[in-house]
Structure formats: C-alpha cells, structure tokens
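Take a specimen:
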Amino acid sequence: MLSTQRQDQINFLNIGLMILSMIAAFVMPFEVFLFAYAFLGPLHYLTEISWLHDRKYFSTGKYDFLILLGVGCLLGYSDIASTYNFHSSFTQMFFELNLGDKLILLAFVSSLLFVLVKNTFIKVVLIVILFGFIDGWFAPNYTNAFGNEVFKPNYATFAMTSLLPTLFHVYLFTGLFMLFGALKSRSKTGLLSVACFVAVPFLLIYVVPNTTFFEITSYGKDSYFAEGKGFYNLNFQILKEFNLAEMPVEAGYTDIYDRPYVDPKKALPVIFYSTPGILLMRFIAFAYLYHYLNWFSKTEVIRWHKVPKIRFIAVLLIWISACVVYLIDYGLGLTFLFFLSFTHVLLEFPLNMMSIVGIGKESVAIFKGGFSKK
C-alpha cells in the first residue's frame, strides 16, 4: 500500500502527463496518434494482458476469460480473412449476420456476469438469454430500395459497437478506473486528476478551434488511411453518423440504408483539413496517448511489471517485433496487431465492470460515512 504522499505524487505526475498529451494533441494530432498507437500501444496490450492474467481477469470463474478470448479470435480471423480475401463464405456470413457487433456487445454485457455471478451454470444460461436478446436487437429492421432486409443502426448501437472498443475504451473506461481508484483511496488529488481529465477535451475543442499548428504530413495521411485499412474509418464514421461535418456525397448513389453514398477516400480532406475533423482528431490523439501514459505511470501502483523474467523478455521481444512491422508498413502493423489490440480490450471488460460496480459501492460508503478513510 502506497503512502498518501506517494499517491499524491503519482496523481500530480498524471496531471502533468495529461497536459503533455493535450499539448501534443494540439500540435500534431494525427502524427501523435500514429506514434502512440504503433509504439506505445503494443507494449500496453502485452503488459496489460499479462497483468490481467495474473489477476484471473477479475472474473469469478477460472475459465470465464475463454469466452472473451474466443470472441477476439473470431473477430481477428474475420478481419484477416476480409483483408486478404480468403474464406469468403465465413466473412460473408459474419457480415450478413452482423456477428461482429453482436459479439462485441455480448462480451461486454457478459463481463458483468463474470464479475457478479459465481455459478457457472447460471452464467451460461444468462449468456444464452443475453445473446438471444442482442440477436433480436440487431435483427433486420429496414427494407432498402433493393428489397433487402438490413439492420439499420442508430446512435445507441453505433456507440455500443464502434465506440465501445475504441474511444469508450481509451477515454471513458480510463476515467472510470481513475475515479474508482480515487474514491477507494479517498484521494483528493486523485479526484483532482479526474476533474482535469474531464476538462481536457473541452480545452481541445474550444481553445483555438480554428488554428492548425502543423498540417498533417504526407506520411501521416498515408499511414492514417493505410490503403483503406487505417484508423481513419473511426473518424469517418463519427463525422458521418453524428453529422459533424458536411461530407462529399456521390450523386445518384446510395448506401444499403438508402442514404446518400459517401466515398471514404473522397472524405479524407474533411478528416484531415476541416475544423470538425481536426478537433475530433485532437480528442482521439489525446485519449489514446494519455491512455497509454496513464498505464505506464501507474507501474508502482498496479505492479504490472512484477512477472516471471521469461514472460517479461517475451513481452519485450514481441513489442520490438511489432514496432519493426509498423516501421516497415503501418497498414501491415494494423492488420497483424488487430487481434492483440482488440483482444486486450475484450479481456479488460470485467475490470471495466468492476470499476463501475466499485464506484457505486464507494459512493454509497462515502455518502454514509463521509470522505475520510476509516
């Protein structure tokens, strides 16, 4: 258990890292993200999975994590098969049944059961019932102009599928984990760091919103798009789904939902140069960079480095290999690191649920007994 003074020092360090991340996101948001995702991301995935494994993934059952790992394997295989055009029958089925979105949501909701329910049989029954509900929620609800029945997403389903493993993971759940820690330790500086964390996005959006310090470089554009495999799709989907920017539509063409069709490649100037596109990228760059820095700054607290030497060496070797792949071809790195990236998100879901439950419990305790630790 760290002393109060040491906890305060770590919290002030984190506030400093937030300021550093914010400044970096102001200056070169695209390149900052690309650097953080390629070189800090893999080390974070590997060390966190190792840390989670030693803590039994914060689940009540010894083998609960296998369900989350199984979802990661299915999503990873689907991504590889789609990228390299093999096993088309599988990828077509995956797309037509919308299995990706269903499995992501199932993994997230099931994680609450992994945290709260000990009986394996009850967990299995509830997971089956949950999948039936999710399958019904994502059932075809719209008949398009071609007579095809499709599922037309709404804001809620978009948030719970596209944003859950991306921005919710790096920003929302990071904030909840910080809040849980602050409440559990009754740390005022911890709460101050949470307040700063909430304030930074507003500063990124409302301070000099029309100023670009450095335009995105040619390398930044090529790597962020990565021949259609890049991270640009998150920006594209958010800007389009929430009508944050005017997109260049293709006259006479519609998508499967009968909406004006937007060619993602022709929308790149909106992503790279428009005010909404740059402001969104500031937030994404900050969220990812600080997410990784926060993890490494808490080494003394959560002790993720306390592992067998052989495993630590293996982690370092895989991390170095991942960095080399990203240096050779950023798109290749995204493809081959997708499984690791997505699986670490899935395996963290029980910890996310534990943080949410813990915030509730600590809030009740503070309400009844005051903020001072007994």
